[in-house]
Amino acid sequence: MSQAATEIVRISGHAxxxxxxxxxxxxxxxxxxxxxxxxxxxxxxxxxxxxxxxTFTQTTFDNSYQTMPETAWNYWNLIKFNExxxxxxxxxxxxxxxxxxxxxxxxxxxxCPADAAIVQYANGIVDFQEANxxxxxxxxxxxxxxxxxxxxxxxxxxxCTLCNDRVSQGLEPACIKACPTGCLHFGTKSExxxxxxxxxAQLRDHSGxxxxxxxxxxxxxxxxxxxxxxxxxxxxxxxxxxxxPRVPILVQLWKKPLxxxxxxxxIFGAVGVFIHYLRFGPKxxxxxxxxxxxxxQ
Amino acid sequence: xxxxxxxxxxxxxxxxxxRERLIHWMAGISYLYLLLSxxxxxxxxxxWIGVVLVGATVARELxxxxxxxxxxxxxxxxxxxxxQMRKTPSDKAWWDAIGHYIRNEDDQVPSADRFxxxxxxxxxxxxxxxxxxxxxxxxxxxxxxxPWNVHVVRQISLFIHGVSxxxxxxxxxxxxxxxxxxxxxxxGSVIRGDVxxxxxxxxxxxxxxxxxxxxxxxx
Amino acid sequence: MTNGWxxxxxxxxxxxxxxxxxxxxxxxxxxxxxxxxxxxxxxISVDPRFTRTSSTADxxxxxxxxxxxxxxxxxxxxxxxxxxxxxxxxxxYTNAAFIVKEGFKLPEDGLYSGxxxxxxKYDTSTWNYEQGGDVSGKANSAGSASSAPAGLPPNVAYxxxxxHPRCVFQLLKQQYSRYTPEMVERITGIPKDQYLKxxxxxxxxxxxxxxxxVATIIYAVGWTQHTFGTQIIxxxxxxxxxxxxxxxxxxxxxxLRGHSNIQGxxxxxxxxxxxxxxxxxxxxxxxxxAAYLKRVTPTASxxxxxxxxxxxxxxxKFVVSLLKAMYGPAATKENGFAFDYLPKVDRDxxxxxxxxxxxxxxxxxxxxxxxxxxxxxxxxxxNINALKKADWLVVGEIYPxxxxxxxxxxxxxxxxxxNIKTTVYRLPCAGFAEKDGSMTNSARWVTWKYAAVPPPGNxxxxxxxIAQIFLRVRDLYKREGGKFPDPILNLTWNYADAxxxxxxxxxxxxxxxxxxxxxxxKTGQVIKAGQQLPGFAWLKDDGTTMCxxxxxxxxxxxxxxxxxxxxxxxxxxxxxxxxxxxxWPANRRVLYNRASCDPDGKPWDPQRKxxxxxxxxQSWAGNDVPDFKPDSNPKDHMGPFIMNPEGVGRLFxxxxxxxxxxxxxxxxxxxxxxxxxxxPDQSSNPLVKKFKTPYDKFGDPAEYTIVCTTxxxxxxxxxxxxxxxxxxxxxxxxxxxxxxxxxxxKGIKGTDKVKVISARGEYIAKAFVTRRLKPLxxxxxxxxxxxxxxxxxxxxxxxxxxxxxxxxxNLLTPAVTDPNAHTPESKGFLVKLEKA
Lengths: 297, 219, 836
Hints:
- The structure holds 3 protein chains of 3 kinds.
- By secondary structure, chain B is an all-alpha fold.
- Chain B has helices at 18-42, 47-52, 56-81, 90-96, 98-102, 117-141, 152-182, 186-191, 197-203, 205-214, and strands at 12-14, 194-196.
- The relative contact order of chain C is 0.14.
- Chain C is of the alpha/beta class.
- A 6-stranded mixed sheet of chain C has the order 25-27-26-31-24-30. A 5-stranded parallel sheet of chain C has the order 3-2-1-6-7, with helices on both faces. In chain C, strands 10-11-12 form a 3-stranded parallel sheet, with no helix packed on it.
- The chains are: A alpha+beta, B mainly alpha, C alpha/beta.
- The interface between A and B is large, with 51 and 57 residues.
């Protein structure tokens, strides 16, 4: 958004066109998570906590290196671990950084009834504005990735902000800064997409991962967090990443068709009864007619 | 059955007892809050209602509690009226004459019992959709407790809650219209409880006849 | 490391074995990922368990803990058999062509020639080269055994055709001819096909004689923590010499140190048997300085027509400069530079001996600074019971640790506590962010660090505490006299503030200064008395220089603190960063980099030019500081391995370089599920000694059938992060990783409480049922491996709240050590497993 300040629209005494006029500047940002070089070190988990000012809490060992079963209202990103045995008997330890995907067509935003509780910026970041959140939890029903989490204390819902406060100042998100192996990348959507596709091709050509690919699901219009997966045909292996996420059909139905029908029906009903009264008036009880204009007292 | 005298000394008829009126307004007022707060969450155009109702967050917190209150009222009403709301043979003829009823050609409409089939429809409608609203409402009240592997329950609840709400609001519009403008004397029946004999005879003839037969006038 | 962290990005092939850098060195591991991303480098992971490092590997082999020499020996055999060796490198830069004396015997029965069973050690005189020059074509040379000197012969017999039956190359071939893939499978449990895939992949860098590609070997304590750990590393070094990878960018033998400054600690003689700069400690047999210097200063030993820099021939300069640094004016030519002030090391005083001595009453007290001996073990119970017998214990730490709390370890009753007479002093010390100084990383880069915050409350800096102790002891000696107080009274202590020595001054001391005016006749350069020295080339053995640590000479010169530099330029793109900090020696980043060129001085790989011979200037030049005599013409055939008297790399390690053999031989861990398949009558390392306290027990393999190993996780750091809420959140409880099959056998489900029992103690934790460890077939028998992290103990956040069983992992481990480096065998011991 600060880029707009440097875009020149008019130049005095200048012959010819304004340089750069009509350029399509890309605002959309993107976080690329390369699961093939992730070592599950959890620096990103800690960086997120520290940047956002959350305290460390008590956890329980649950037969996994995974810190907790799901993200939480105060734990916005989580490495999900899965021991996957391939057909040839060899093992993979799949590790995927789970956090808000910042969908282009966010289910949370579709479902949210509260004015300005969820906003989507031109750069693709989908941000919860807790001041406007009413704590209804509809966003939890709208999200296909199980990301928004309710805080019983604050009585509101929280999720990863793609470090909007950092990004808007030209910094990279905290998780990306902390990642030691450089498996996390940040840049424009097209840059990251290109980087991801190059890496996926490298995996296919040189590392024997025939099905390596990029996860950027169309069902939600693409996302501003994309993954490189060793096996893009089976995203569910990566800690339950949905293979074809969409804004849930019932939410879509509820949001548009049902609402239209309903609103129309209510207005129609209200107008209808008014018209009925105009046409037919009230029911008259004969015996009461002379003295009853209202009702018996 | 009739524990209180229905034919009053002043020549009027007691239509609804104190208990019945109390429970009706318990249901009515809680439904009103539910409707208003619900409309705020239903469409962005009416979100301002939430703000007016002491804040949208407060409205969201109170909405389910009023829902509980409403369903208690519905349960009590069920307890009171379910038997009287049962389908009777005369209902069919009444529905056949619905056109006359709407056009206020009441003399063409067959006699109604204490509750005419329209009122029965209202009762059962609120009962059935009320239950759906309750169940889906409980899910929407605590969506975080629905495990992710059955998360479709959250979405189904969202949808059903909306659909059920629409059905109840349709019934509500008609009910309020009829209870105020449409049927003179009806409003008083749920405030003071009594109606004129003529009113009783006109709108619920069979019931009135029954009363006369069973009557014990009170001094 | 011979190379460095950033240099790893230059590699084409990585063998990561006995190490788990993804988990334990995540920041350094990024360079391995860079190599994969930018060079399509391959990564082979060999480990007793499938780790987070293995998850990034192109190939993984699950190996039985302690069988690495079998794996690596088989690799040597394969490389030789398939001609995947660097022939020119081998002949010219290693001792492959040297002839070994008659009388030398390979250990087909588990013993080399010269074993003295009574003394429990070797007479290594047969492990030596023969004299005599060129003996090629002479199948059995006349070996002048009679005139063979006690040390290495100056003119070695050699056969450059590598055919002589007693040349090192043929002996090497013979030694590892037993290490067939079938044998390796039976010993390690790695299926033959998988093994062949791995070694084929690794040696493919030398396929068809290609010298451009480079492979690196990366390891950590998975290799050192065995009773033959040093020999495992030796095997890797030999492989890298055979394949011509030492001295190459992206190559080398690379140890990943386990602490940010452990390299610095060993550099400064944190080990009992060395003086700063890895100089050998004097023994009682060294009657005086001259005798000592004669013993420890090597003389060149090589084919006559070759040249050898034999840089350790300068040892007298290093030693005398050290003595001048320590004793100043009290060290004179007349008194042998106060050589008598140095303690003479008469036996093994290494870690496990300290605790054994304490148990037996000869060690009365201990000062432990940031060293949690109770948790480290091995054999924690032994250490606790040793402390019970000590008179006093001083613990310098940042929080109460298990060592300072030994007296209330779980299992010690309040009654028993009353009978423990040890006085325990707890000194609050400064944490790493609260002190300045320097840290030396695995890549030998010495970096100055600044304190971020001052120490809190009464916590003090380490050097201030040591200063207090020294000044007061010196004072006591001054006032009361005593037995030979001279070394204390005459120790130099010229710091600006004696009670608070600035570490910058210490660094300058380590760098060294001139004590008289020095002049270089060749260049005319003059150094005035009192000035910092530019480097160790200026050190003298006549008392005109002082230097606290010769390998650090150059770190703080007249030009300033080299270790404070932060220049981010890397003109060659090889990750050298010559102006960032300062690496020893002399800011060379890749050691032995002369070997990155062929015998004519041209780089093997023109794409990765490190150093080269510049014909015009008649000197060596480079993107890295040449690790070589700068003006040595390639015609003179000076060996790249300038620290060896031979000038070449040692495939064969002669005489007593290593106590247990000139070639590594597969020995089983002391507690092993199987007899040694090569020589069942000598299963384990013949030099390993067992202690004799009641706590030094060993398990019968018939009863303790499971092979156990210990390790570290990314989320914790040794024994102190269990005090930090962040780490405890990430991994809250101790666990033990067990194979799915073993869990099924015992009816154990994930998170069930289980007990791991060794002959020495019990460890109780939750079961982590996993596919990452599988049962192994060892010589046709199914053997289960398990593993457990070491991070939890009996004092910490979760421990204090009673949320776990408070059993340190090292309750299980045995106090047996490697005879060369004295590292305990913490990986590869026997246990049994039960539900708790």
